[in-house]
Amino acid sequence: MSDAPSFRNPTAHDVARLAGVSQSAVSRAFTAGASISPDKREKIIAAADQLGYRPNILARSLIQGTSKVVGVVFGQFENPFFAHALDRFAEEFAARGLRILLFTAKTNATVDEQVAELLSYKVSAVILMAVNLSSKLAAECARSNIPVVMFNRTTEEDHAAFTVTGDNAAGATAIARHFLATGRKRIAYMAGYDDSSTSRQREAAFFAALADSGLPPPRRAIGHYSRHGAIEATRALFASASDQPDALFCANDLMAIAAIETLRAEFGIEPGAQCAVAGFDDIPMASWPSFSLTTYSQPVADMVARAVAFIAGETGEEQAVVVPGKLIVRNSA
Amino acid sequence: MSDAPSFRNPTAHDVARLAGVSQSAVSRAFTAGASISPDKREKIIAAADQLGYRPNILARSLIQGTSKVVGVVFGQFENPFFAHALDRFAEEFAARGLRILLFTAKTNATVDEQVAELLSYKVSAVILMAVNLSSKLAAECARSNIPVVMFNRTTEEDHAAFTVTGDNAAGATAIARHFLATGRKRIAYMAGYDDSSTSRQREAAFFAALADSGLPPPRRAIGHYSRHGAIEATRALFASASDQPDALFCANDLMAIAAIETLRAEFGIEPGAQCAVAGFDDIPMASWPSFSLTTYSQPVADMVARAVAFIAGETGEEQAVVVPGKLIVRNSA
DNA sequence: CTGTTAGCGCGTTCAC
DNA sequence: GTGAACGCGCTAACAG
């Protein structure tokens, strides 16, 4: 395989020679809206087909200084919410002729490296899903005129990025009120990460709504937005048999579902009556009969559409879009 | 945003001027293993930092005729098996300095388009996850010396692609034997797609093993590898109250889990005793207490590692790798 | 509408 | 070890 006959792909020159035209004519034949006569175009296309020619997108991008590629940095593969969002992005982008260059980052530290490399690829935009970018790199992107979208995260710094999130405050408040309205007293909260704006915003609004009703601050554990972490957090919260919560709000559905299963399997608690469990996102799984999870929805399709609109420059001056969701009451709370 | 001051990114020339060296020296400073004196390299790096210079990967790839990018065409976002595999690919690639250009294809027809475009990007390999490629495009890839990997699919055509799959035949046979050993008589099969090699291979081995024991061919329905399709297929298979199956083998775990929930919610059947349900893949969800799904495992990490090894040229002449899994017996069967 | 010309930014000879 | 010169494949600006 190493010393194959070093096949050279046909270039526009080759096609031009075969079709008896100039190389730039070939270029025009492959450029939508270029001025070229139909018959000449046909002849060129025929010659190209014969040779198996395809324009080299790298060369094109080099000239134009930008590629039809969007860099996506992805954090959480475990959470179906983001898988779904990635799917939606792929579809929206495909419709606009954009491609996805995918990076994954397990830690925030690597995000900067990834984005730095994305700049080398002259991507036309960067999307950060569930990860944070340093302001230094945000500035670099701005300097190169590359729009940056933070998906499901916000940032304190102005103009560092366009952010699109669900309505964390409204959602957490709705969950709190629902708990209160159904007479819950010993309420607990399971956070994602402490450095996740999403988790912090949900927590702040949740705590505030409870405090408004004179309740003490909830018990609290950190589930790291993962199933494994959520199981451990549930164990910690319910360890004391004499003082178990009667309601649990988890910062996302993935953790809430893990909590439900742990309560059933390890504590003999059937979520709903004895202890209410609520999540956030309304991932498809939340509606599965095994979980029937009460949650606050984040409309993925809308959120993605807003992000794509921004990238496409179809948006005004707004920097932070909050897409409203709604409380979905099911059997778990 | 449209008429920003049209910022030009610094080039190697700019750095060279600032550092008082030639442009090729700059190139060498950024090329691992190039011969350049340490102090000169330092000076260049300093100048580059000051200017915020990063090599333009597009230009580099244009010269070298290949980019450190692997094209991935992705079919099924709904199935966590593939999400997990994509995650593993991302990690393995990152370790080798490879990037992922992601395409999605809902239909087989679009796969050809996607791959054709990947060729324009001069990708160094193509990975097809759960989709089929026409032999025409496979040939084009071969002509351009671009290795093609079909992940979890096989092809009849020789040398069209490197394929890596789980052990469909052994797995389906193991499930069949397990059903037989536990006294099941009225056995049903839920296929994925009829044009999926994976589904066909599992079906063939499953039917053969049952036939060996003198059982009639199972009842059969098509679940389209989706939750929705699996729910409908389950309804169809269990519609006649007088003749319900006592065992159901689904072509993947995602469908098996949907079947389990449908049996519980709509037919009052608790999988395990009255009716056995088995899947294929051993996705993480299969082990969740709500499902406790009996299944045959496909070791994602191994499969991905084999695929990556092939791309990296660390593999011999083999064209079709079958990675063995094992029967995982849980409560559902 | 068409061909000619001049680069895009960088890696890679090739002399020194 | 270093710089000059060339060219990767293509688009864009220009003249006809």
TrEMBL record, chains A, B:
Keywords: DNA-binding, Transcription, Transcription regulation. The keyword Transcription applies. Gene3D superfamilies: 3.40.50.2300, lambda repressor-like DNA-binding domains. SUPFAM superfamilies: lambda repressor-like DNA-binding domains, Periplasmic binding protein-like I. InterPro entries: HTH_LacI, LacI/GalR-like_sensor, Lambda_DNA-bd_dom_sf, Peripla_BP_I. PROSITE patterns: HTH_LACI_2 (PS50932). GO terms for molecular function: DNA-binding transcription factor activity; transcription cis-regulatory region binding. It comes from the Bacteria. It holds the Pfam family Peripla_BP_3. Residues 10-64 form the HTH lacI-type domain. This is DNA-binding LacI/PurR family transcriptional regulator. It comes from Sphingobium subterraneum. The lineage of its organism: Bacteria, Pseudomonadati, Pseudomonadota, Alphaproteobacteria, Sphingomonadales.
